[in-house]
Amino acid sequence: MNDPNRDFNEVIRMIRKEDSRYERGAYYFLRQALDYSLKHLQREGKLRENQHLSGQQLLEGIRLFAIEQYGPMALSVLTHWGIKDCRDFGNVVFNLVECRVLGKTDQDSPEDFAGGYDFADAFDRPFRPEKAAKMKRPVFR
């Protein structure tokens, strides 16, 4: 569960001393993406009563939030923070779980984030132009 008495900046400093794979921005982004995901699922009526998200639900919320916040730059921003695949999101989440910033159930594990989605498909493809149907080439004379 969230501990409001802990300073999030200090928690991130402590985490990064032990695990420097991810930039500070990844942790702030994850926290915002979690809030976004909860609100999104609540609007759709898909939130469990205990307000606990599965790894897959959080991954989808992260994807939507990243696209909304960073548009075509989402993939570049995530890569800059050290986030290269869904497993990295799981590592960030469980770093926060270990510091008691986030809670988990006995069934939750970092492996819940393995697989997930392909980053190019999730963050790059939505911004690629659709390939035009094969058109007849104009004949110049």
Q: Can you tell me about this structure?
A:
This protein has 141 residues and is mostly helical. 52% of the residues lie in helices and 0% in strands. Helix 2 packs across helix 3 (55-70). The chain starts with 7 loop residues before the first helix and ends in a 17-residue tail after the last helix.
What attributes characterize this protein structure?
6 helices, 141 residues
Quick overview of this protein structure:
The protein is an all-alpha fold. It contains 6 helices and no strands.
- Output the structural class: mainly alpha
Count of DSSP strands: 0
- The residue-averaged pLDDT reads 87
Number of discrete helical segments: 6
Distance between the termini: 73 Å
Q: What would the principal axes of the Cα set say about the shape?
A: globular
Low-confidence stretches: none
Characterize the main sheet: none
**Proportion of helical residues:** 40-55%
Cα-based radius of gyration, to the nearest Å: 18 Å
Q: What oligomeric assembly is this protein in?
A: single chain
| Proportion in β-strands | under 5%
The topology string of helices and strands comes to HHHHHH
